[in-house]
Amino acid sequence: MFTTIGSVGKDRFEELVTSSLDRVEMEARCQFAVGDAALEIEPLRPHGGHLPVAEPQLSVEESLALFAARLGVSFHTVRTQRWVAAQWPAEHRQTGVSFEVHRILAAHPDRFELIRNPPLNERTGLPRWTGEAAKKAVGWKSDQVPVSTAEKVAAIRDLAEGDEAVAAVVATDFLRRPDVAFKAMRDPTARERVNEAQFELAEEGGEDDEFTQDYVQTFSDEDEGDPIEDPVHIVRGFRKAQEFGDLIAVCQGFIAGAARLVPKLRCHDLTASQVAALTRHVEKLRATTDWIEHAVATGKVDLDEQLAQLLRGQ
Questions:
Q1: Would you say 135 and 142 are in contact if contact means Cβ atoms under 8 Å apart?
Q2: What are the DSSP calls for the chain, one per residue?
Q3: What is the pLDDT of residue 207?
Q4: Could you tell me the pTM of the whole model?
Q5: Fewer CB within 10 Å, N side or C side of the chain?
Q6: What are the CA-CA distances from residue 76 to residues 19, 44, 66 (Å)?
Q7: What is the Cα–Cα distance from 23 to 238, expressed in whole angstroms?
Q8: What's the superkingdom here (predicted)?
Q9: Quick check: 138 and 124 in contact, CB under 8 A?
Q10: For 68-102, how does the pLDDT look when each residue is reduced to its tens digit (9 = 90+)?
Q11: Distance in angstroms (rounded) separating the CA atoms of residues 63 and 66
């Protein structure tokens, strides 16, 4: 258990929470009071309704704008508080629940029942409404940093939604972790998908999979020979295979990322400094690919001084 929270002790923290909750409740009452006043000035009317015009009078917007100006607040604030007050009759407003939560839940068809059943807060272990919990209840996207496992998984899925290139790179990266791969293969559906992909690649002969083709061509010859090999040679072979696979994955990751991002430049009007920065990085990429080709052809991986200076940005 924490003895201090921030710069205060736990007891003082609880005192501040209690006093602040009172202020939050007071603020909610004040906001509802302003909303009720605005609602009295300009009640909500059905769409298409109208008032009999006996004499010239202000429009709804003009009346609310005048009210807001007299209070010294924005028209948007008054209009929002008026609408929220209309959605929450006094008998359905919940004491101890912020005005913000009432605002978020205001459009929910079962809001009166929903607000009486606050969800469990994973941070505090207490059932309590928060702005983030209310957003989840109505299906809004949360701005909060993911905390629970479910929230983190949902965030990753949202980021990779509709982008197969990103999903493939992320899945490949995660499956390189032995524990992750082991747990993933315990899932029957995941295991079935991997097996299906392997069968499809085998039937295609690897022609459409550059990684499989390069990998097989590179290491298949080394597997032929005596059935009993030196353990040191085996370990070195595993390490060599892993390093080769990592290099191919880096190349494929760059290609996938470029294929996703370059088409988006069509609508961009780049500045001269942005063009210069991209040109410098492209020059580094060309030099790096030349280095890779040279290393593959000669077995020499040392950087010459000119290339080293270029990669350092000199």
A1: yes
A2: --SEETTEEHHHHHHHHHHHHHHHHHHHHHHHHHHHHHHHHS----TT-----SS----HHHHHHHHHHHHTS-HHHHHHHHHHHHHS-GGGPPTTS-HHHHHHHTT-TTHHHHTTSPPBPTTTSSB---HHHHHHHHTPPP-SPP-SHHHHHHHHHHHHTT-HHHHHHHHHHHHTSHHHHHHHTTSHHHHHHHHHHHHHHHHHTTTT-HHHHHHHHHHTGGG-S-SS--HHHHHHHHHHHHHHHHHHHHHHHHHHHHHHHGGGGGG----HHHHHHHHHHHHHHHHHHHHHHHHHHHS--PPPHHHHHHHTT-
A3: 44
A4: 0.46
A5: N
A6: 29, 16, 12
A7: 64
A8: Bacteria
A9: no
A10: 999 999 999 999 999 999 999 999 999 989 999 99
A11: 5
Domain range annotation of the chain: 4-46+58-117, 162-265, 269-314
Identify the residue whose tokens are 């469990």.
Answer: 120
Contact 104, 138 (CB under 8 A): yes
Note the pLDDT tens digit of each residue in 116-151: 999 988 778 889 998 888 988 888 766 555 556 766
Residues making up the chain, counted from first to last: 314
Structure tokens at 306: 């000119």
CB-based contacts of 143: which residues, under 8 Å, 6+ apart? 132, 135
* Residue 267, number of CB atoms within 10 A of its CB: 6
